[in-house]
Structure formats: structure tokens, C-alpha cells
């Protein structure tokens, strides 16, 4: 998802994509699995530079792929920790092997997938979270800023210091977008709230994440939100050690620190990957850029794939009026009453 290479070119690409290419997620990702009988198992490869043990981005993708393997009888191969220089040859290798569908799991996989796909027209590629597309390449770029808006509002309502923080693995456009949503949500509750953050240039160093978290706490933050994969576990440790709340990303990260992680912005990857498999199985693959947003809960009807995790054992710590306000914010975003715009450049 968030490798440590420049994405300036992708940022430019994101800014010039025509609105006509941005279709509703439901247009192509909502097919019933029973309408197509696969004569042989669908050959699917899940490839990522992340780690399947990271408790978030990589782990959630792996778990979703295993569920779908059982559901559809897929011939599934999964590969983690692909080095950035090896992305393109790895994609080419699996296309050579005859994969029907390659899920290229990470923002930086987009351009390599576009290059490789031109030589393998019979292989379908889905880039998650990508901003590239062609006849046999689709990208899914979830509107995570809608979820982080909700977390920002929650943090602002419960902060005692008037300062909340965030830690990012790298200042990529998609990560900036998440933190901009966080800022917008917080300021919708308290225009004067202070939102401070750091980018630590690594997704695989919990010690560096903890160091950044401690720094933010020392500067007054009493909520920490991270988008930093494995490094984010260090951010959560910092919050736990200092007795404040942390907010998770991609997976419901409550289990990492049950008395510290208040809630998380979760990606419904199973729903997204299921849609990709069905597009290929049904012969309805559409090489488009999909931007699914907020849903009310995991697996909810409609085209959303972003949802807010429950409070679990911390439910009693959240005041009733805060819960009511959050529910209203979620419904207003889903209905379109509240629009959380994409922002790929950081604001102050």
C-alpha cells in the first residue's frame, strides 16, 4: 500500500483523471456469483510489498483472499514483501504463469501493472489502492477520507487537551487524503482544535512509529491516528504506554491493544476482492477507476467498502451523545448531505 518510493507522477495522474472515468463501485463489482460456472478454478494471485503479519494492510488482504479461496475454490497464490524494484518483474512472472486475475495490492503497483498489462491482454489486473486503468486494468481507490472524517470528529469530541495527532508512513497522496479527512472531521466539531502530525518515511519500523507517537503526545496530543502499517503498531504502543487512545486503520485493530484502540477505519477488502473475482468470472471485467466510499457496516448493501469499527470493550467510555453524533455524521456522509472532498495536498 504505502511503499517508500516517490509517487509524484501518480499524484499528477490523480489530478488529471477525467471525472467520466470515475464510476460507481456498484456498476461492476456487484454481480451474483451464481451466474457463471467456471470450468476450471480461477487462477488468482495476490501480490503486495506489505507483510501479511502487519495487523493491517497486508493482513487484511491475506485474510480476505483466503476467505474467497474457500468460497469460490480459487487456485490462489499469495506473495508478500515484494521489493519495490521487483514489482514489475513479479507482475510479469505471474502473468506469464497464466493468472486470470492479479490483485496488485498497493498504490505503487499501478504504473507497473499498466505497463505489464499491455503485453498480457487476457490477464485482468486490479490495483488496490490505485489510480491507473486500461482495458484490462481496474483500480480501486477507496474514499478513506470519509472514514477518517468520522474519526477526526470522534477525537475532537473526546479530546481533553484540544490537540490530536497522526503518524504517516510516507506522505503519499492517498495517505495525505486520509489525514486531510481526519482534520476536516475534527474541525467540523471544534474549529480551533490543533491537529499535529509526522511522516516517518517507513512502514516497517515500530520503534520509529513509537518515537513519533511519543513526540506527539509530549506536544499535547491525547489521540493518535496512524496510517503506517507495521510502524503503526509502535504508534499504538506509545498511546498505550501514555494512557491515551489510538485510532486504527484498514483493519479493526482493537485486538492489538484492547484498552487503547478506541476504533478504526476499516476497509471491507473481502467485499472489494469478491467484486473483482466476480467481474472476471462473469466476463464483465471493466477497466475503470472505482472510488467506493463509506458504508454503515461490514458487508452492507450498496457500493461502499469503508466502515467504522465498533468500540468493543471501550463502548462505555464513549458518551451517548458522542455516539449519536457519530451515527448522524456517518448517515449524512452516506446520504451525500455531508461531502468529504478528496485532498492530496496537505493543509496546515
Description:
The protein has helices at 8-16, 57-72, 87-96, 110-117, 144-158, 173-189, 206-218, 229-242, 269-281, 320-335; strands spanning 22-23, 43-48, 75-79, 101-105, 124-128, 137-140, 163-168, 194-199, 223-227, 245-250, 261-267, 289-290, 306-308. 38% of the residues lie in helices and 18% in strands. It folds into 2 domains: 8-140 and 268-290, 3-Layer(aba) Sandwich (Rossmann fold), CATH 3.40.50.2300; 144-266 and 311-335, Response regulator (Rossmann fold, 3-Layer(aba) Sandwich), CATH 3.40.50. Helix 6 links the parallel strand 7 and strand 8 (194-199). A 7-stranded parallel β-sheet has the order 1-12-6-5-4-2-3, sandwiched between helices. A 6-stranded mixed β-sheet has the order 8-7-9-10-11-13, with helices on both faces. By secondary structure, it is an alpha/beta fold. The chain has 10 helices and 13 strands.
What is the element layout, followed by pairings?
Layout: H1 8-16, E1 22-23, E2 43-48, H2 57-72, E3 75-79, H3 87-96, E4 101-105, H4 110-117, E5 124-128, E6 137-140, H5 144-158, E7 163-168, H6 173-189, E8 194-199, H7 206-218, E9 223-227, H8 229-242, E10 245-250, E11 261-267, H9 269-281, E12 289-290, E13 306-308, H10 320-335
Parallel strand pairs: 1-12, 2-3, 2-4, 4-5, 5-6, 6-12, 7-8, 7-9, 9-10, 10-11
Antiparallel strand pairs: 11-13
Short key terms for the protein model shown above:
alpha/beta, 348 residues, six-stranded mixed beta sheet, globular
Amino acid at each position: 500500500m504505502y511503499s517508500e518510493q516517490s509517487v509524484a507522477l501518480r499524484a499528477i495522474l490523480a489530478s488529471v483523471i477525467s471525472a467520466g472515468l470515475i464510476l460507481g463501485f456498484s456498476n461492476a463489482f456487484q454481480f451474483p456469483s451464481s451466474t457463471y460456472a467456471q470450468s476450471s478454478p480461477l487462477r488468482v494471485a495476490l501480490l503486495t510489498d506489505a507483510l501479511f503479519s502487519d495487523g493491517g494492510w497486508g493482513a487484511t488482504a491475506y485474510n480476505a483472499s483466503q476467505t474467497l479461496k474457500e468460497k469460490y475454490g480459487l487456485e490462489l497464490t499469495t506473495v508478500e514483501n515484494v521489493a519495490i524494484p521487483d514489482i514489475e518483474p513479479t507482475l510479469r512472472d505471474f502473468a506469464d504463469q497464466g493468472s486470470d486475475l492479479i490483485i496488485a495490492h498497493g498504490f505503487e503497483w499501478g504504473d507497473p501493472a499498466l505497463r505489464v498489462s499491455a503485453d498480457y491482454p487476457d490477464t485482468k489486473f486490479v490495483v488496490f489502492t490505485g489510480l491507473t486503468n486500461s482495458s484490462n486494468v481496474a483500480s480501486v481507490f477507496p474514499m478513506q477520507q470519509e472514514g477518517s472524517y468520522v474519526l477526526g470528529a470522534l477525537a475532537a469530541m473526546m479530546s481533553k487537551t484540544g490537540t490530536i495527532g497522526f503518524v504517516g508512513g510516507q506522505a503519499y497522496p492517498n495517505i495525505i487524503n486520509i489525514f486531510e479527512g481526519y482534520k476536516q472531521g475534527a474541525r467540523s466539531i471544534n474549529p480551533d482544535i490543533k491537529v499535529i502530525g509526522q511522516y516517518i518515511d517507513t512502514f516497517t519500523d515500530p520503534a520509529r512509529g513509537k518515537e513519533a507517537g511519543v513526540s506527539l503526545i509530549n506536544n499535547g496530543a491525547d489521540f493518535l491516528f496512524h496510517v503506517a502499517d507495521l510502524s503503526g503498531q509502535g504508534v499504538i504502543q506509545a498511546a498505550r504506554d501514555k494512557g491515551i487512545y489510538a485510532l486504527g486503520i484498514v483493519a479493526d485493530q482493537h485486538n492489538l491493544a484492547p484498552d487503547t484502540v478506541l476504533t478504526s477505519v476499516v476497509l471491507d477488502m473481502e467485499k472489494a476482492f469478491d467484486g473483482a473475482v466476480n467481474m472476471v468470472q462473469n466476463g464483465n471485467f471493466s477497466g475503470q477507476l472505482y472510488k467506493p466510499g463509506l458504508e454503515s457496516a461490514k458487508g452492507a448493501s450498496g457500493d461502499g467498502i469503508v466502515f467504522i469499527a465498533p468500540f468493543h470493550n471501550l463502548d462505555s467510555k464513549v458518551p451517548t451523545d458522542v455516539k449519536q453524533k457519530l451515527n448522524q455524521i456517518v448517515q449524512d456522509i452516506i446520504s451525500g448531505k455531508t461531502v468529504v472532498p478528496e485532498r492530496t495536498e496537505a493543509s496546515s
